[in-house]
Amino acid sequence: MTVARILATKGRGVIGVQPHRTLLEVTEILMKNKIGAVVVTDAHGHLLGIISERDIVMALGQRGPIALEDAVSTHMTSHVVTVSEDETVHETVSKMNRGRFRHLPVLLNGRLCGLVSIGDVVKYRLEEMEKEKNAILEYIAMA
Q1: What 3-state class would DSSP assign to 105?
Q2: What is the pLDDT of residues 59-94, one digit of tens each?
Q3: What's the rounded Cα separation, in Å, for the pair 14 and 105?
């Protein structure tokens, strides 16, 4: 199963913010949308970074509540690991595990076209495993 298949089911909508927005604004977006990260883009929609709940907690831990007034660009991850639509769920999980992060922007021809979370890939991996199990059981029943 590929990332493209996940996006075909969950949708390609990506919530983003511009780098001058504050951490407080991002926390409101995360809470309102019940998500764990947003991409940071320029005015033309080009990917500049990603900011997650973890980034915000680290900023608060370092600077205290005043950090909520900081620009997103101050605390975002700017060296973003991405995936392409043709990468498999296994490759995607591997990237997430190696980097110890839970969200990956998806690029198509260098343009942002989606975002997958660890929850997305686990869901599809479990479905894949269930299909494999059923195929094995069916094979055993027919033998």
Answers
A1: strand
A2: 999 999 999 999 999 999 999 999 999 999 889 999
A3: 9
Classify residue 16 as left (phi > 0), alpha (psi -120 to 50) or beta: beta
pTM of the model: 0.83
Looking at the structure of the chain, the number of domains it has is 1
Share of the chain above pLDDT 90, in %: 66
Task: Give the whole-angstrom CA distance, residue 77 versus residue 51.
Answer: 6
- Comparing CA positions, the residue from 35, 106, 42, 109 lying closest to residue 72 is 42
CATH of the domain at 129: 3.10.580.10
Cα 12 to Cα 1, 3, 4, 76, 113, distances in angstroms: 17, 11, 9, 22, 6
Range of the domain at 66: 3-142
